[in-house]
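Before a colleague's protein record goes any further, I have to sign it off. Would you go through it and say whether the fold makes sense for this chain? Take the sequence as given and treat only the tokens as open to question. The record follows directly below this note.
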Amino acid sequence: MISQAGSFAGSDPIANGQFLNGSSPRVRLISVRVEDRAGVLQRITNCLARRGLHLASCAVGQGSEAGVLNLWLRVDPGTQPADQIVKQLNKLIDVVSVDDLTRSEPIEWAMALVEFRPNGRGDQIEETLRRVRAEVVHRDPERLIAALAGPPDLVQAMLDELSQLPIVDFVCSRPMALGSGYPVSASEPARHAQAGSE
């Protein structure tokens, strides 16, 4: 089975898209731009937890603006209105802008590194990697490492295909995303407004 960290342990195939696909139709894909300050991720998770909003996953990356980080959050609002996610995040002084990308047909991209122990099956492994269009990024007599990249559903399908091979370990990023056209967030003019209000 697969551990929460993405490690392969045992002989079971990779399980049902649990790393890349949302587990509930309620889950929202939220893009947040924040100032790169110490403790900013903790403040975001605390903000969501206080309101009973479950953070299902988080990806972090550097964008085009110096000193600003891009976050992609998958948040389950539970029984609360979905717009509470944006409203609560906008109260944080570190937040530059917030966008709910869920209904904007976002372009999503995920990546994975998969390590194999060839054990005499190197040709079979490489043939399968070519078939799923994975790239071999490291090769030595003891191990082979392949890189996968693409939309989350495609990367998950590639992982499913590769699960029949002698996988030693793998790591998988949470998806990053841009909304179609990626307009300036409507929340941006309200930056820092009522930062401490309820």
Q: What stands out?
A: Confidence is low (pLDDT under 50) at residues 1-19, 182-198.
